[in-house]
């Protein structure tokens, strides 16, 4: 962009101020927690159907069509992926045009509309529309929140703040399990809507990210945003220099992104990044963890667990949070590849154990005193899934992708992810009817085992390595 003009930066510089001691990340934490109020609500959307399916198939159903058919259940559950697929493309475009903050406020609209459709639902069609809207909001969040978080965070807290997305989404899912077990259909809606409303009010004071403002040539606003998120009142030369570096980097990356050509995809690193990224997204869904969680209450009904479906799903929801927390704590210590390997093979063992128990049960074996096994096996698979396969592919994808095609690779792989989400959730009820639950458990175990072998052979360890080092490994 050429040399920076001094008049772009109007705030006063105080040479006596040491910003190393003044930098604070408190506003970064509060902003990320605030935007993740919407993520909490999306987690509720994901978990709500588990308990709602029991209501829809009972005498208390609000639907005039009474009990849902298997095909209707599949469409209602999987419709969330249709919205997510469209949102992945739409919000990437919108955030570049209007900024991250405006795009996040747009997310609130489909999120609230989805619950309005749930409230007035009288036929399965209302529920399908609601899930599409909810998925559209979720797709927007998984596009915008990581981007916004990365752009306002200091290096020392970026990893921790980035982990909030999955943690808080899992917290929302657990809240949905609890509400589904202990509150009626309409009360659940009243309990989740305030989270979106709270975001509207609380996030108003936070400025757009500096990077987003720089890309739109709003340098004065970008400078103020930079100072705001670091809680700097007086401006030192060190802080000014850091901001100017951000301007140069943002505009340099923007120029590079606009010059992507076919040649950029010809290198080994580019081909591998796209291939590995797609494979990781397929594993993320075809390991079965997310789909099984969506239908968790119904699955525990089928399995004959000694705990009620409600209590079982609450335990599983809690274990998901613990797994995601462990992932955020140990990913920088143990490494991405090691945790992905443990996660993949661990899911295979967990679902194999569940499948074996259910198979032996179907051939007449009695397990008096051992009816806790389905819960333990299921919970182990979900815990280990959140330790790696569910949480880390998105981080690995960004790390193994060449910077110039990173945006394209992210959009492509997230599109593949949403297609996989739709496929697995839509046809899981049909698979359970055809293969029974034990057969489906064995299938997911096999997929996870194959995924583990793939990770061992192909995926490089990226922990502690620079972009240049990773690209050299990917080019071999």
CATH class of the largest domain: Mainly Alpha
Q: Residue share in helices?
A: over 70%
Specify the overall morphology. globular
Q: Ranges with pLDDT <50 over ≥5 residues? A: 1-21
User: Mean pLDDT across all residues, rounded?
Assistant: 84
Secondary-structure map:
Layout (H helix, E strand, L loop, with lengths): L18 H4 L3 H31 L13 H29 L1 H20 L4 H29 L2 H28 L2 H18 L7 H6 L3 H11 L7 H21 L10 H19 L2 H6 L1 H8 L5 H26 L1 H27 L10 H15 L5 H8 L5 H53 L8 H8 L2
Helix pairs in contact: 2-4, 2-5, 2-6, 2-7, 3-4, 3-5, 3-18, 4-5, 4-7, 5-6, 6-14, 11-17, 11-18, 11-19, 13-14, 14-15, 14-16, 15-16, 15-18
Overview of this protein structure:
The protein is mainly alpha-helical and 476 residues long. The chain has helices at residues 19-22, 26-56, 70-98, 100-119, 124-152, 155-182, 185-202, 210-215, 219-229, 237-257, 268-286, 289-294, 296-303, 309-334, 336-362, 373-387, 393-400, 406-458, 467-474. It folds into 2 domains: 24-206, MFS general substrate transporter like domains (Growth Hormone, Chain: A, Up-down Bundle), CATH 1.20.1250; 267-476, MFS general substrate transporter like domains (Growth Hormone, Chain: A), CATH 1.20.1250.20. It contains 19 helices and no strands.
């Amino acid at each position: 962009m050429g040399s920076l003009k001094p008049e772009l930066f109007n705030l006063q510089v105080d040479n006596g101020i040491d910003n190393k001691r003044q930098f604070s990340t408190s506003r970064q934490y509060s902003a990320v927690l605030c935007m993740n109020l919407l993520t909490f609500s999306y987690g509720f959307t994901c978990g709500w159907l588990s308990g709602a399916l029991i209501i829809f198939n009972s005498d208390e159903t609000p639907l005039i069509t009474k009990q849902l058919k298997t095909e209707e259940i599949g469409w209602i559950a999987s419709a969330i992926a249709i919205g997510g697929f469209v949102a992945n493309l739409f919000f990437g475009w919108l955030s570049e045009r209007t900024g991250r903050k405006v795009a996040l406020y747009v997310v609130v609209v489909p999120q609230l509309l989805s619950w309005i459709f749930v409230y007035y639902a009288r036929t399965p069609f209302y529920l399908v529309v609601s899930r599409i809207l909810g998925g559209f909001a979720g797709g927007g969040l998984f596009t915008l929140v990581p981007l916004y978080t990365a752009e306002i965070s200091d290096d020392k807290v970026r990893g921790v703040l980035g982990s909030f997305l999955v943690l808080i989404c899992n917290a929302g899912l657990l809240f949905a399990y609890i509400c589904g077990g202990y509150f009626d259909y309409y009360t659940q809606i009243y309990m989740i809507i305030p989270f979106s409303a709270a975001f509207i009010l609380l996030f108003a004071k936070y400025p757009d990210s500096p990077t987003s403002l720089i890309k739109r040539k709003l340098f004065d606003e970008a400078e103020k945003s930079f100072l705001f998120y670091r809680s700097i009142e007086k401006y030192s030369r060190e802080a000014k220099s850091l901001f100017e570096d951000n301007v140069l980097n943002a505009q340099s990356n923007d120029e590079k992104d606009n010059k992507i050509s076919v040649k950029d995809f010809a290198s080994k690193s580019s081909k591998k990044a796209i291939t590995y990224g797609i494979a990781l997204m397929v594993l993320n869904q075809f390991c079965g963890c997310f789909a099984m969680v969506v239908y968790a209450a119904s699955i525990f009904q089928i399995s004959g667990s000694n705990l009620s479906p409600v209590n079982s799903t609450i335990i599983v929801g809690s274990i998901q949070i613990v797994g995601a927390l462990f992932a955020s704590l140990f990913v920088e210590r143990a490494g991405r590849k090691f945790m992905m390997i443990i996660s993949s093979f661990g899911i295979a063992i967990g679902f194999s154990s569940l499948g074996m128990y259910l198979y032996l049960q179907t051939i007449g074996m009695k397990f008096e005193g051992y009816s806790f096994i389905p819960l333990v096996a299921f919970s182990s698979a979900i815990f280990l899934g959140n330790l790696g396969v569910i949480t880390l592919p998105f981080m690995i994808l960004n790390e193994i992708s060449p910077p110039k095609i990173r945006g394209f690779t992210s959009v492509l792989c997230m599109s593949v992810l949403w297609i996989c989400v739709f496929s697995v959730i839509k046809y899981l009820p049909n698979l359970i009817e055809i293969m029974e639950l034990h057969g489906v458990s064995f299938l997911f175990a096999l997929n996870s085992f194959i995924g583990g072998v793939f990770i061992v052979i192909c995926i490089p360890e990226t922990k502690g390595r620079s972009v240049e080092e990773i690209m050299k490994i990917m080019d071999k």
